[in-house]
Each structure stands twice: as structure tokens, then as C-alpha cells.
Design goal:
The structure is a homodimer.
Chain A: H1 7-15, H2 31-44, E1 56-60, H3 61-77, E2 81-82, H4 92-100, E3 106-108, H5 111-119, E4 124-130, H6 134-145, E5 149-154, H7 157-170, E6 174-179, H8 193-204, E7 208-215, H9 218-221, H10 226-249, E8 256-259, E9 276-277, H11 287-290, E10 308-316, E11 322-325, H12 329-332, E12 340-341, E13 347-350, E14 357-361, E15 374-378, H13 382-386, E16 391-396, E17 399-405
Parallel strand pairs in A: 1-16, 2-9, 3-4, 4-5, 5-6, 6-7, 7-8, 8-9
Antiparallel strand pairs in A: 1-10, 10-11, 10-15, 11-14, 12-15, 13-14, 16-17
Helix pairs in contact in A: 1-4, 5-6, 6-7, 8-10
């Protein structure tokens, strides 16, 4: 994308009148509550974020747009594409923004996430995990029967045969990428002969269509220091890149060669044949990624801006040196580093108890809170935190501009 | 309760035809999906738990009933009551079982949880957290306007005055317990003169009715070793007990003196004047509590049975010494100790990545899994894990007997 997303463009994509964007029922409400909720959502649009009740999840729209822009500009310059991972945001509105900005498709980790994204009109979905249980295989075929652009990962011959049989029975062709293990042995098949053989099998099975390959090294994403990260990322994709060459020589489709993530988005294009990066966290950034350092700033990963925050209220301020808030583990997870209090210095925040957060002041704390005061936390690890909330407030400056349902929240099946 | 809950009693309470038990819409589904979901729920009743798709959350009904029975028998023998904390299960059906078994009421940590419990017909709710924001104070008064038996904690004079003004404006009387700090300075007011003064203020404010006091020492619950835990628990409640005596002398109501939890349920009655324990985790038990040891078994806390499990499926088994499952941090949280593979030995489970779990086999592993195999995990820390799921499968032996909505899932506001 050659220009920043304008405010108007953003609203049109994210909260406009097109039918696909009509807010779906927020989870867990009765019909009456949904009507009330719809009223509340409208009432919340236009208010100051400081008037929202807490704990709640906010995204700074200027920062989100800057992150989308930065990613798209970079991958385009490097001759690859982005295929953002919806497991991070679980939010169809943000997926649609990514596609509007030039992404070639959306990734999901779960079949249930793919179903939600498809239901909201996302037309090109790559599920990066294998479907091995009969219900999930059935649901994958139903997605194809409903006309979804849906591709899924395969890493064993047995699973390929199961999918082919199910596709044939369902009267569809299932699109497949072979998932290659980058060396961590978590998912995928071994690069080289095993992967090539599997790709050839997929190519011959009647219910399947080979679309290419996938190799994601999750462990590379958080390696501290750009040079070390680059070495690790390029090294772990090397065998997959050789496999891609072998597949091409064997006449197999390598139109998709997907890998990488937010930590390696400006490295992965150096892997020959790689077509796109499955970047997730870049939309929000988080405290975990801040610490890995970047190509420009070795201390802090400043490529993207921290856009995701949890708002919380102080519940108890009557003891020296500390305060208690309403955002504990159920609002923040217990991922480390702990959340960062935005805009303040000389205080730490821990979310170690389920219901309460704890602020501890140092001698030079920039301020001391009273009961009822609100503060904003930079999220530690965005993916599992988003998964705790049913909605996200899109904030411009200090004003709530839009309320988006996190429609795939809790879709872990 | 003098007898175990029979299967019939249990079903009548949990899944019968009374209007309060009609399943509410499961969060996040459209109307069409809800109809489909209702069909699926019915279809799932009667199937083997091993036929459920994964990851999913299960409770062993025999063990749940044994835990309810054990708690009720013990507190009754000790001359106190149980007032179970719904923050653990967030499930109205389980709350109703607790009340049917003799509990005097239900606790909640959040106003939104109280609203859900009230909506499902729970008539006596104690919110153990203060309400300090205007929207929450408004909602607390609306609960009273709708006739709910609702009592809330207060720990500052300013908050007491705010609540009184709101109650007067709403035309209701708000029931109040004074929350006393057990010494951790997380929540509550200091015992002795400050707490007494606050209780006297509450007693005089026109919109409030004083019901008693509350003192919960969360830190005492997980102290390892029964003797040390007893010393800590009794010590931290001592000042609150003295305050209760002062309140009684001053003619103030101490009809509620609530404290304690699963780790101290058979200790807290030794605190003079204490009326009930806010026990939560005992219904499910979890791996965290197993390690604290009990009065009967110093090594393992065997007072209650581990009833809560996550079912997961093996996705990758092609690398020696390990397997990858579909239940990572989004299905298990990252609380420690890690989940325990039920019924197996010689293997460890980690849920360190968002989407995937990792099994590592030791030399003497009791078995090795193939792709598609299912296994059952004993949950690490029940409260935040329950908060990840929209429903819980009640299983008798290996058969699904009931599907309960976790209606307060995600209610963190």
C-alpha cells in the first residue's frame, strides 16, 4: 500500500454500512441484552476512553494504521506479501483492514476461527494447523462446500488420505499446503525427501489440490538481537527453501511458500522462493516484542507501535507504596514481562492474582493513584489477552471511534 | 448435607426442566447457530467424552459431587457455612448445586458475574470486591431494584457515601459488608479502629444496611504444609475477629463474617465469630492445590478430587520423544505447575505456546501417542482456565451427561 489508511477509509472498512460489517451479537447476551448492548455500543462511540468501564481492551487506531502501513510498505518493497494471522486479533474487522491494505489472505490457527472469518466475508483463508479429528475434517469440507477460499496444512500421508476421502465424499476439492518442520519438531514434516514425497502424494490424491508449502519457526520470532534473529530465521528455513526448489523441479505447485512472523518480517524475504509472511502481533505490538530489539534500534523493537492496551481502575489506594486495580490475570494473562503502565515512570504492574492487579511505586514514581483513577496498560502478549475479551474499543486520540466484536474469541476448537 | 447428591438430584438441579435451567444462548453464535448449537448439545449428551472434539473442558460429575459433599459435611460439622465463590466456575448450574447442597449463598468477584448469577435465579449473592466506578455503582443498585439479594464489599468512607447516595437516588437499600485487610494490603481497610469507624458510618448512612464483615487472606490458601497454613490463616484473621467483637459490642450487625477458602476450609472455623468460608477451587480442585498438602496427607492435598480436565488431541507424533497437541496456552493458560496428563506416568505436558501443547516422554512413559489420539489434562489453576471456555461437559464415567453454559465466562467488568 503506497498511502496511509485514511480515517475515512478505515471507518468504511471497519465500521461502515456494508452488510458484512453489521455487528454480530456479542457473545453471551440474551436478545434483550443484545439490544441493550447495541445501544450501549452506540453510546460508547464518541465518548472518551476514560469514560469506559474497566477492565476493557482498547486499540489506538492511529497506531494500528501506522503498523498496517509499515508492514505493507516493507513487504512490498521486499517483493513478498503479507498473509496476516488472525489468531492474534480474532477480529474480522481488523482482518478486513489488512486485506484492504494489500494482504493476500488471512491465516487462522483453528477451524473455528476460519469459520468465523469466512462468515464475516473473508474470502482467502489459510489454516496453518492440521485438521485431524473427524469433526474438524467435516467442518473443513463444509467450508469448501459453502464456497470459502480455504487452504489447510497437512504433515502426514495418513492425514492427506483422510482429507482426500472426505473431500471426495463431500464433492469438493480441498486446497492443501505441506507444513514443513523448521527444526523445532513441534509441527510439520521433515524437509527434503519426506516433505517432497508428501507433496507428491497430495498432488495425486483425487480430493486434494496442492497449493504449496508452509514453514513457520515460532522460536525465531522472539530471538533477541537482529543479527542473531536473522541467522536463526534464515537457517531454519533453508531446508524448506531447498524442498521448494525440489517441488518446483518435480512440477509441483509452490505458489504459496509461507513463513515468518512479526519478529522476522524484514528478514524472511531473503529466503529464496518465500512468498509471504504470516505476521500477527505487528498490528498491536506488545511488551514481549518490545524487548527483542530491531534492525534500527538494537535495544527496543521500534518497528511497530504499541497499539493495544487494557484500561483498568484503581480499587484500593490506602496502603503506602502500592495500589490495587481491577485488572488481574483474567484481564491480562500472566505472560511476562508484566504489562507496562502507559505514560508513567517509576512504577511496576503485576497481574499475578486472578482478579486484581498490583501497582508498586518506586521512589521516583511519576504519580500516585487514588481510588477510581483509571490507567492504561501496554499488553504483555497480545494473542492470549485478546482471547479474553468479547469486544475491542477502537480509540482515536482519546475518543472511542468504533466498537468491534472479537468474533473468534474463545474459538480454540 | 447429610447424603451424597444422587444422580437424579444432580440432574434435576443442573439440567432439569425448571425455567431457570433452560440453557441460555452460548456466547458468540447467531440465532441460526444457537439453534444448531442446541441440537449439538443434545447430540453430545449421551456420547462418550472421547468423542468430543477438542480442546474442551470437562468436569467429572462423581468427583464434583464428592467435593460438594466433603465441603458441606466438614463445614457443617465445624459449625460454619459455605458461601462458595462463583469466580471459580462462573457457571449458574454449579452455583445452584452448591445452594441445593446447603451453601448459604454465592460469592462473586465482579458485578457482571453477580448480574449473570441473579439472572439465572441465584437469590443470595455477596460481591467480595468494591464497586467504585459510576457504571458499576449504578448496576449494583439496579440489581437491588430488580429484587436481588445482593451484598457488596466496602473499604473506604468515600465509597460508602457514594453507595448510600446512589441507593437513595435509586430508592433501594444497599446491603454492605466491611472488607478488612488481612495484612496483605491488597484490598480492605485496616482492622480495629479504622474498620470499626467505617462500619459505624455504614450503619448510619441512609441508603446502606450493614450486614457484617469480610476478611479474605488469599495468600494463606496456598501455603504448603497444614501446620504452617493453619498458623498463617488464623494469624491473619485475628485482628478481623477482634474487630468483629468490637462491632458486636457497638451494636453493629456481624451476621456475616466471611473469610477463608479451599486451602483453609477446615481451619477457618477456629477463628471466633467467623460464619462462612468463600471456598472456590474445591469444586474442581487443580494441580496448584494438589501440592499444598493436607491435614491427612502431608504430601498431597487429597481432601478434594481433581474433577476438572481439558481434553486434547495429538496433532503431531512424528518426532522421537515428544508429541504436539491442540491445547496450548489459550486452552490451559500458562499457570504452573503445568497440567498433568491424567492416568499416565513418565511424561510431562507444557502449554507454553499459544496454540499447541507439548508432551515429552521419559524413558518409562506409560504410553506413546499417535496422531488423533485424545488425552485428558488435569487443569493447573481452575479459575482462569474455566474463564477460557463457553461451556463445560458434565461427564459420568466416560459418558457426557449434561452440557452447562459457563454463563459468566469473560465477565471481568
Amino acid at each position: 500500500m503506497t498511502q496511509s489508511l485514511s480515517r475515512r477509509h478505515f471507518l468504511a472498512a471497519g465500521a461502515g454500512a456494508a452488510s458484512v460489517w453489521i455487528p454480530r451479537p456479542v457473545k453471551g447476551y440474551t436478545a434483550a441484552e443484545m439490544r441493550e448492548q447495541a445501544v450501549n455500543d452506540r453510546l460508547e462511540v464518541g465518548v472518551s476512553k476514560w469514560d469506559l468501564d474497566t477492565p476493557c481492551l482498547c486499540v489506538d487506531l492511529d497506531r494500528l494504521e501506522a503498523n498496517l502501513d509499515r508492514m505493507q510498505t516493507t513487504v512490498r518493497r521486499n517483493g513478498i506479501a503479507s498473509r496476516p494471522h488472525a489468531k492474534t486479533h480474532k477480529c474480522p474487522a481488523i482482518a478486513q483492514l489488512q486485506l484492504a491494505g494489500g494482504s493476500v489472505g488471512i491465516c487462522t490457527a483453528k477451524i473455528s476461527e476460519a469459520e468465523v472469518m469466512s462468515e464475516y466475508g473473508i474470502a482467502d483463508i489459510l489454516m496453518t494447523t492440521v485438521n485431524v479429528t473427524p469433526p474438524k475434517i467435516r467442518r473443513a469440507m463444509q467450508l469448501r462446500q459453502r464456497g470459502a477460499g480455504f487452504t489447510q496444512a497437512v504433515d502426514t500421508a495418513a492425514n492427506a488420505r483422510d482429507l482426500s476421502a472426505a473431500a471426495t465424499e463431500a464433492g469438493v476439492v480441498a486446497d492443501i499446503v505441506v507444513d514443513i518442520d523448521p527444526g523445532g519438531h513441534r509441527t510439520g514434516i521433515t524437509a527434503g525427501a519426506p516433505a517432497l514425497e508428501l507433496a507428491q502424494l497430495v498432488d495425486t490424491l483425487p480430493g486434494l489440490r496442492l497449493r504449496g508449502l508452509l514453514c513457520y519457526d515460532g522460536g525465531a520470532q522472539h530471538v533477541t538481537g537482529f543479527a542473531d534473529r536473522r541467522r536463526r530465521a534464515l537457517g531454519s528455513l533453508e531446508a524448506a527453501a531447498e524442498t521448494a526448489v525440489q517441488m518446483t523441479r518435480a512440477g509441483l505447485d509452490t505458489g504459496i511458500f509461507s513463513g515468518g512472523g512479526t519478529g522476522t518480517y524484514n528478514i524472511d524475504h531473503e529466503t529464496s522462493g518465500l512468498t509471504d509472511v504470516q505476521v500477527g502481533s505487528y498490528v498491536f505490538m506488545d511488551a514481549q516484542y518490545l524487548g527483542i530489539g530491531g534492525a534500527e534500534n538494537p535495544e527496543v523493537y521500534t518497528d511497530f507501535e504499541t497499539a493495544l492496551t487494557v484500561l483498568t481502575t484503581v480499587l484500593n489506594a490506602q496502603y503506602a507504596g502500592r495500589a490495587t486495580t481491577d485488572a488481574g490475570a483474567k484481564a491480562n494473562t500472566i505472560n511476562r514481562p508484566w504489562p507496562i503502565v502507559a505514560g508513567e515512570t517509576g512504577m511496576t504492574y503485576t497481574a499475578g492474582s486472578d482478579e486484581f492487579g498490583t501497582i508498586r511505586y518506586e521512589a521516583d514514581a511519576s504519580r500516585v493513584y487514588a481510588v477510581g483513577d483509571k490507567l492504561e496498560l501496554i499488553v504483555s502478549h497480545c494473542d492470549p489477552v485478546v482471547n479474553l475479551y468479547d469486544q475491542i474499543y477502537g480509540v482515536r486520540g482519546e475518543t472511542v471511534e468504533v466498537v468491534w466484536p472479537i468474533a473468534a474469541r474463545g474459538k480454540s476448537i
